[in-house]
Amino acid sequence: MNRRDFLRTAGGAALTGSLLAGMNLPATASATKPKTSPQPFRKGAWAPRALIHRAPDSLRQRMAELAEAGISLLAPCIPVPYSPWNDPDYYTGGTGVIEGYPDWNPFQGMIEIAHEFGTEIHLMTSCFNIGREAPIFQDHPEMVAQFPSAGDWSWAARKQGNYACGMQLRAQKYVFDRLRTLVERYHPDGIHLDYIRTGTQCVCDYCVEQMARQGLDIRAIQRRYDDQRDLWLHTGTQHMLRKYGVLKPVSWGVQEPVPDDEELGRWIDWRIDRLTGFIAQMYNYTHKYGMELSCAVKFFWPAQVPTGAQDWVRWGREGIFDQMCQMDYDRRPDELRTVIRESQELLAGGTSQYWPGVARGRGATGEQKRWCQSPQELAERVQICKDAGTDGVMLFHSGLLDDDDLAAIKDF
Ligand SMILES: [Zn+2]
């Protein structure tokens, strides 16, 4: 299973390398001291849907193996609702999906077995990537996010139709209600917002109207960048650094400044605010019932913010996630140390826990060849995270960890 199959949430800015490089980080003396976690270092793992589909005895054996290795948090990938390969009833009814076990409720059973071993379960969902088969799109076609597709943005057409517009309150309520159903029916230990973002910027009628009320023509803004995606990312990145420079978590300064685009900045800020509002609502709801909220985020900040509105620095500093798990899969040891140090500096003073994400690769080709290729490499990455004082490490993913891997990380 490759990462795309696992996540079912493809997309986002196809950028590599630390975008913090060359941007004068760290910035302030007060922000350079890494947070020292008062809690013991923990280990968690994202988990494929296959874990949920295991028969009870097999599931119990696997949970025992993972717990023996010290993995105390699992974020299993739940199906995207209403996708063609999923029975909608699975999401809320949960019966009859495992051959030979017609009365087995996969979610409930998984949570109960996990608790036998002291393992917490955060059900992982891909939020606004609800799938083009979602009936809500038949009833409310205006909820479909409209991604730009001209010029440099043709890649976004691949995602067109799968995402609800995360800016629309109706879409937020739809996603929130589905998550609330999970919370109330299964009472997991938490909800995990997978790679939380908006896909890319949306120019649907709703977004156009909302921005017009503020005097902005976002379709005109978009047209300015139709053939200049790099300039969009660069301008948006500088907007974020300028904004955070005022707040002091970064020092403002770039090597190749571009003219400020005040209109683009206001559009980006509005999108961040809307997405943050949704997350804060989910955070308050889960905490109201004694649960946690965690998420997966990309490591490069702020370059992904102009597209996906994924401002994890704000979320971490404001503490609206319990665990922020950063997808550092391709990092070599020195790069991982750098990313961790930069992230700790950016998050200093915040209350969200910071868990770097480390991937176990299995294969000589494709993206997995850039992930850890041995138990020793995996252990080295975990050691780096622990030595850096992070709150934990999140492994990608439980299905890729064999006995030797589990033995290698057991003592951390
Ligand atoms: Zn929209």
What does this structure look like?
With 412 residues, the protein is α/β, with parallel strands linked by helices. It has one domain (3-409): Glycosidases (TIM Barrel, Alpha-Beta Barrel), CATH 3.20.20.80. It has helices spanning 3-7, 49-52, 56-68, 88-92, 106-116, 135-139, 169-186, 205-212, 218-224, 229-247, 262-288, 305-308, 312-318, 333-347, 375-387, 403-409; strands at residues 42-47, 71-76, 120-125, 190-193, 292-298, 323-327, 353-359, 392-396. Strands 1-2-3-4-5-6-7-8 form an eight-stranded parallel beta barrel, surrounded by six helices. Helix 14 links the parallel strand 6 (323-327) and strand 7 (353-359). Helix 15 (375-387) runs parallel beside helix 16. The longest helix has 27 residues, at 262-288.
Fold topology:
Blueprint: H1 3-7, E1 42-47, H2 49-52, H3 56-68, E2 71-76, H4 88-92, H5 106-116, E3 120-125, H6 135-139, H7 169-186, E4 190-193, H8 205-212, H9 218-224, H10 229-247, H11 262-288, E5 292-298, H12 305-308, H13 312-318, E6 323-327, H14 333-347, E7 353-359, H15 375-387, E8 392-396, H16 403-409
Parallel strand pairs: 1-2, 1-8, 2-3, 3-4, 4-5, 5-6, 6-7, 7-8
Helix pairs in contact: 3-5, 7-11, 10-11, 14-15, 15-16
This protein binds zinc ion.
Notable traits:
single chain; 412 residues; alpha/beta; 16 helices; 41% helix; disordered N terminus
Portion of residues within helices: 40-55%
Task: List the quaternary state of the chains.
Answer: single chain
Count of beta strands? 8
Unreliable spans: 1-19, 26-34, 83-89, 91-96
CATH topology name = TIM Barrel
Please, how many domains?
1
Distance between the termini: 27 Å
Mean pLDDT metric: 86
Strand content: 5-15%
Instruction: Tell me which ligands are bound.
Output: zinc ion
Q: Tell me which CATH architecture applies here.
A: Alpha-Beta Barrel
Please state the overall shape, judged from the principal axes of the Cα atoms: globular
Q: SSE order, as H and E?
A: HEHHEHHEHHEHHHHEHHEHEHEH
Order of strands, main sheet, comes to 1-2-3-4-5-6-7-8
Gyration radius from CA atoms, angstroms: 21 Å
SS summary, helix count? 16
CATH class annotation: Alpha Beta
Q: Please name the fourth-level CATH homologous superfamily.
A: Glycosidases
Q: Kindly name the structural category.
A: alpha/beta
State the major sheet. 8 strands, parallel, barrel
